[in-house]
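Good morning C.,

I know you're traveling, so I'll keep this short. The sequence:
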Amino acid sequence: MAGATPFIRDAWKFGGDDDTYFKVIKGTYPGQTMPGVFGATLTDEQVWKIIAWIRSIYKGDPDRIVW
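The tokens, ready to paste straight into the viewer:
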């Protein structure tokens, strides 16, 4: 079984903008790998906090940032 693609990288399968991250985490983005059950247990506020944390630890190429 292949592992999940990490959020913290320079190239994103679905896009690296906040709206896409939100939909992937909530389990509402078509073709994603994150189980929808996980996102259903999180409030919108919790999802935005996760996105902010992901952004805060990104150490990749600043020229590739899309958010």
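Safe travels,
E.
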